[in-house]
Amino acid sequence: MEPKVINQMLSKAAQSGQWKYGQHACFCQKQGSGNNWAYGYSVHGPRHEESIMNIIRKEVEKCDSFSGFFIIMSMAGGTGSGLGAFVTQNLEDQYSN
């Protein structure tokens, strides 16, 4: 969730030439979860739910034939600990098909 981590990922993806992420489709905050899954799930998730789900909704609306999500999460934790599980649960609720 931290800008430094997100910017590194965007930079490496752009350098590879194989994948490009749009800046508008990324969500970051100055404060991460600091490897605390419960904090990410119970605090950051509900606090930023609307912003994150709006980003996802906008990306889905761009699709001609949307068929689902491909979720990749780190099992080792990190700055976004818990947030991925929270977002995945929301995706299941909002896009049940």
Automatic annotation (TrEMBL):
<dbReference type="GO" id="GO:0005525">
    <property type="term" value="F:GTP binding"/>
</dbReference>
<keyword id="KW-1133">Transmembrane helix</keyword>
<protein>
    <submittedName>
        <fullName>Tubulin delta 1</fullName>
    </submittedName>
</protein>
<dbReference type="Pfam" id="PF00091">
    <property type="entry name" value="Tubulin"/>
</dbReference>
<keyword id="KW-0812">Transmembrane</keyword>
<keyword id="KW-0342">GTP-binding</keyword>
<dbReference type="GO" id="GO:0007017">
    <property type="term" value="P:microtubule-based process"/>
</dbReference>
<dbReference type="GO" id="GO:0005874">
    <property type="term" value="C:microtubule"/>
</dbReference>
<keyword id="KW-0963">Cytoplasm</keyword>
<dbReference type="InterPro" id="IPR000217">
    <property type="entry name" value="Tubulin"/>
</dbReference>
<keyword id="KW-0206">Cytoskeleton</keyword>
<dbReference type="InterPro" id="IPR003008">
    <property type="entry name" value="Tubulin_FtsZ_GTPase"/>
</dbReference>
<keyword id="KW-0472">Membrane</keyword>
<feature type="transmembrane region" description="Helical">
    <location>
        <begin position="66"/>
        <end position="87"/>
    </location>
</feature>
<dbReference type="InterPro" id="IPR036525">
    <property type="entry name" value="Tubulin/FtsZ_GTPase_sf"/>
</dbReference>
<keyword id="KW-0493">Microtubule</keyword>
<keyword id="KW-0547">Nucleotide-binding</keyword>
<comment type="similarity">
    <text>Belongs to the tubulin family.</text>
</comment>
<dbReference type="InterPro" id="IPR004057">
    <property type="entry name" value="Epsilon_tubulin"/>
</dbReference>
<dbReference type="InterPro" id="IPR017975">
    <property type="entry name" value="Tubulin_CS"/>
</dbReference>
<feature type="domain" description="Tubulin/FtsZ GTPase">
    <location>
        <begin position="1"/>
        <end position="96"/>
    </location>
</feature>
